[in-house]
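From: lab user (bench 3)
To: helpdesk
Subject: output format question, protein + zinc ion

Hello, I'm new to running complex predictions and I'm not sure whether the block I got back is the full result or only part of it. Here's what I submitted:
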Amino acid sequence: MLDAVGKHVSSWDDSGSRLVVDAGSLVQSAACPRCTCSSSRLHGRYRRRVADCPSFDQAVTLAVEVRRFKCVNPGCPRRTFSERVETLVAAGQRRTLRLVEAMRSLGYALGGEAAAQLAACLGMRVSGPTVLRDLRRAGCPLPTTVPVVIGIDDWAMARGHRYGTIVVDLERHLPIELLAGRDAATVVTWLKEQPAVKVIARDRSGAYADAARTAAPDAQQVADRWHLLANLRDAFERLLLRCPGKLKEAARQATETLQLEAIPAETPTEPADVVPTELPLKACQRQSNARRECRLARYEEAVRRHRAGESIRAIGQAMNLDRCTVRSFVHADAFPERAQRAPASSLLRKTVAAR
Ligand SMILES: [Zn+2]
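Helpdesk reply: Thanks, we reran it on our side. This is the complete output you should expect:
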């Protein structure tokens, strides 16, 4: 990084909480930014202090020597100029490009305040508003691919008051655009700039359908699964709410049928003797029970063979079992049940436990 701008590390100081790296200049000549004439007539030098990415758990400051040269072109209005170090740090900036890039990546991923908090943990000092200011200056990263299959839906900036439209690239599963408004005109303006769009997944409202029909008439419109299910659920709820009397009657009949099925014919029918019905097992429980049955059968077979005088090696070979497994079976006092698996550790669990 320093070599690219003709610098070399001359010394460093980590006596304090910050690592300060002095970088001397090896630049013997530079081009005048005004007339582009090369000059090696040294005029002076100064130190430019910029923050760099942290290292060895310490914040890093680069004290970079910058040389000034006299312009040798008598016709140039510029008398002196500094050598260029733009590949290290942008003009007027106090952070190196790679530090700015690191903070920007955090900002794109997390937003202002969260990025600032994580940056502090990583040894980079920056405030939330600074992160946001830099993101506004940098703008949205340009998409590397043109969207072909997109999803369009509205989102609430302030629920019940202001809504926008979010556009998602459904092939890359990434949001690619936020539009201010959820009316057809807003979407039409954006869609007209996207000639590659072939499939548009949308909700079942009219605005987005009109927009897609106007701006991308050849694109296939698809009602997305979430909205179909949500609409179905809402319609079913409305249907049920329309006939509460019939609903109660159906529930009463269903309860009675269940109770009758649960009571054996010869037992008296007093409510106190009603046997509760056993809930059907879930698929995973059925699989678990089946696996336990297999393991139990293997255990009993291994124990039987061992009592008949077979060696552990012979049992393992005959039953295609590991010798350790056979040994654990034959030395156990009873069928060794599988140990319950402990819940998986997660960052959230650790954080909660630490508090
Ligand atoms: Zn010049």
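A quick orientation on your result: The two ends are 42 Å apart (CA to CA). Let us know if anything else is unclear.
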